[in-house]
Amino acid sequence: MPTEPSKHANNPEIRYEKTDAHVRPLYQFLFWISVITILTAIIAMVILRGLESWRDKASTLPTMAEAPSQTWMGQPPPAPRLQIQEPKDLAVFRKEEQEILTTYGIVDREKGIYRIPIEEAMKLTLERGLPVVGDPGVAPAAPKAPAPKAKAPAKAQHP
Questions:
Q1: What DSSP string describes the chain?
Q2: How far is residue 114's CA from residue 103's CA, in Å, rounded to a whole number?
């Protein structure tokens, strides 16, 4: 009859989980794995800084270059001289090149040659365009001397 509550079948072979999974162990795992990851990153940064300072200190001493006390008659050794502080020299070089590429400056005041930042130069090139060969704004190249006319080869006669 429809008014009777239905009874569920009792199957002992079919099993299911009666409770939900516990979330607390999952959150604890995520917390500790995050802590370990952050600590590992901090330790790696400390080691990196220590190795960089050690390298900088070690590179101040001449390794393959002659010591100043071993110069010949008070003069430095002949060229080419080895770099003693390669990382610092490279950093200074890159800083100078970056400054040249990003600032305004005077190249040759007498000839009126100035430099502008490369970004500005690219913008101006896009606005103005590149010169065309037949463009009247560009001075034509010096005319070339006419090439001498070559004589036509004589026809070979076959017997």
A1: -TTSPPPPP--TT-----SPPPSHHHHHHHHHHHHHHHHHHHHHHHHHHHHHHHHHHHHTS-SSSPPGGG-BTTBPPPSSPPPS-HHHHHHHHHHHHHHHHHS-EEEETTTTEEE--HHHHHHHHHHH-PPPTT-TTSPPPPPPPPPPPPPPPPPPPP-
A2: 11
Phi, psi of 115 (to 5 degrees): -115, 150
CB of 101 within 8 A of CB of 108? no
- Rounded to an integer, the average pLDDT of 45-53 is 93
Which pLDDT score is estimated for 136?
59
- pLDDT tens-digit readout, 110-148: 999 999 999 999 999 999 988 888 755 555 555 455 555
Specify the residue for token string 């008070």: 74
| Residues facing 105 on adjacent strands | 115
- Half-sphere exposure (CA, 13 Å, Cβ side) for 117? 7
β-strand partners of 72 = 75
Mean pLDDT of the chain: 77
